[in-house]
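hey all, quick one before standup. I had two proteins in the batch that finished overnight and I want to keep them in one place so we stop losing track of which output belongs to which input. First protein below, input sequence then C-alpha cells straight from the run.
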Amino acid sequence: YLEEDDIPADALSSLTKIAGIVEATMDGTSGALYAIFLNTLAANVRKQDSANMTNLTPSMWAQALGESLKALGVYTPAQPGDRTLMDALVPFVETLKSTGNTKQAAEAAKRGAESTKGMKPSLGRSVYVGGKGHNEVPDPGAFGLSQFLTGLAEAL
C-alpha cells in the first residue's frame, strides 16, 4: 500500500500507483471494475492538455472522469439503481461536470452510496448472497468508491 512518504506529487503518478495497488489486492468483479476505471482515468488524465499534471482543473478532471465512466460501460451493464459502485460514481461525475465543484461532487457520491441502503440488488454479489443485510447498510462497492472519491475531491 502507499506510505505517506511514498505518495507521488502529481495526479497521474498517484492514479497509476493506486491502480496498481487495486489490481494487486482487490479480488472479484469490483476489483476488476475499479482497476479498469482507474487505469482508464489515468490514461484520460494523461491526454489532458496540461504541461504540469499538478495543475489539472476540476473541468479537466470532469472530462477525464466522464470518458472513464463511458469506457467502464463497455465492461458492466450496471447503472445507478442497481446497488453497485455506479450508484456513487455516476452522481460524482455528473455533479462535477455540471458544477465544477469537487465538494458537491463528493457529497453527491456519498448520497448515491447511502441511497443503496434498502435497495434491492440487481447485480453483483448481493444478488446471490441473500439475506437482508442490504436493508441496513449501503452497497460496499458504492460506499468504498464514495470514500475514494471524497479523498480525490479533497486533494483537488
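OK second protein, same deal, sequence then C-alpha cells:
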Amino acid sequence: MPVVHLLDYVAGNVRSLANAIEKLGYSIEWITKPADIEKAPTLILPGVGHFGHCLTQFTEGGYLEPIRKHIEAGKPFLGICVGLQALFEGSEECPNVAGLSLIPERLIRFDDRNKSVPHIGWNSAKVARTGHTNKRSFYGLQDGSKYYYVHSYAAPYRSGVLEAAGWTVATAKYGDEHFVGAIGRRNVLATQFHPEKSGAAGLRLLKAFLEGHEWGSLLHTMQAEPDQGLTRRVIACLDVRTNDHGDLVVTKGDQYDVREKAGTAATGLVRNLGKPVDMARKYYEQGADEITFLNITSFRNCPLADLPMLEVLRRTAESVFVPLTIGGGIRATTDSDGSEVSALDVATMYFKSGADKVSIGSDAVVAALDFYTNGKRLSGQTAIELISAAYGNQAVVVSVDPKRVYVRSASDTAHTSIQTTNHGPAGERFCWYQCTVRGGRESADMDVQQLVQAVEAMGAGEILLNCIDKDGSNTGFDIELVRE
C-alpha cells in the first residue's frame, strides 16, 4: 500500500483527512520530527488556526527549512488551509511572522463591513479557462462543484499576476472579494478549502493529487453556476439519545417531546429512527452538506474517554466526508475518577475523534446572562471563549432553543418583539422569542437577539437556530424568527 506522510502540527481534526486518504487506498505515516520530512516521498501539510501561531511552530520545531527543501527537490506537496497560507510571504493576521515566500504575495482579512467573517461554507474553486486549460480539469476541480471553506484571511486574486509566474489558480468569490481557492505549480498543490470535508468533489481532488494527475478531463454532469460565492447548505441535524433499552438512537421530538404518543404500540417509548452512524452515512450519501449530532442524553457516570458519542464520531468520520458537529455536554465537568476536566479538554477529545465543530446550548445562555450582568465584559473563562481562542471562531456553534411569548403590544415587554402574522391564543399580534435551557424545559429572561449578540462577542462562529414552537409540527421553518 503506498504511503503518504502527514504533518500534524496543530490541534484539530486531522483524523478526517487521514480517513479520506486511507479510503483512497493509501496508508498514513505521521511526521513527528523534522528529519522525517527528508524521507517523505509525498508530504501533506494540513492546518486550521492562526497563521502566526502555526508558522512559529514550524520555525521553532525546525520544520520550515525541511519543508522548503522537500518542495525544492520536486517532491509532491499538498498544503491545506493554513498549509496553503504558509506558501505565501506573510499575512495580515500576524504581520511580523514570515511564510515560506514561495508566493511573493500577502494574505489579507476579509472585509466584514458587508458580510460575516470568518467565511464558512461551500463555495467554488474555478480555474481561469484560457489556452491549454480551456477544456481540462486541474487536479479534478470542476466548475460546477462546491468545496468547504473555513477562514478569515485569504490571498486576493488579481487576474494574470500569479499565472505569469507559472501558477495555475482556481478562484472563489465571497461578497465582492475574489480570492485564491486553490493554486498549483509543478509538484506543489495547495487549497484554501478542505478537500477532506468537501464530499465527493474533495475526494476527487485528493485522488488526483495522490496519483499525480495534474490535468484531466472536465466533467459535464454539472452545470457551472454564476460565481455568486457561498451556496446554501443542507444540514442534517440528528438528535441522539439512549432509548429505553440503553441503545444510542436518532430520535425526533414534537416540541422537544421524543416519546411516542398514546394510541400506538410503542406508547411512551423513545421514538427510534435508526442508529446514529447509519443515519449520518445515509444523509451524507443523499447529499447532505454537513452532519450535526445533538446528544440529548447525559452520561453522568461514564468516564469521559469512554463517552459513547466519541465512538459515534470516530465511526462516522471513517465514511462521512463533510463537516461534523457535535453538541451536548461541552462543558467543564468532573470525571468519574474525581479529576476536573475543562470545557476545552472535553472539546479537544471530540475534535480528535472526528468533530470539526462543537455546539454549545444551555451553557451559552448562562454565559450570556453573566455577560450582561457584568456590564458586557468578557470573563475569558467561558467554554465559548476558551474553545474559540484555541481552535478559532469557526469551531464553535451555539444552539439556540427559543419559544414564542405573545404580548398585546411591543410596549408590554422590554425584550425585542415583532409584529407577527401568526397571532397568539388570545389574538395577540406581537411576540418575542424567549431563550430556553435544559432541552426547552426551563426559560431564561433573555431574548434571541440578546443571546446571539453576546455569544458573537465571546467568539462563536455560527448559530444553530431551532424553534420549539415549530418542532414536530410539519409546518416548516419559523421565517419570522429567522428574519429577526
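Flagging for whoever picks this up: The two ends are 54 Å apart (CA to CA). The first strand starts at residue 3 and ends at 7.
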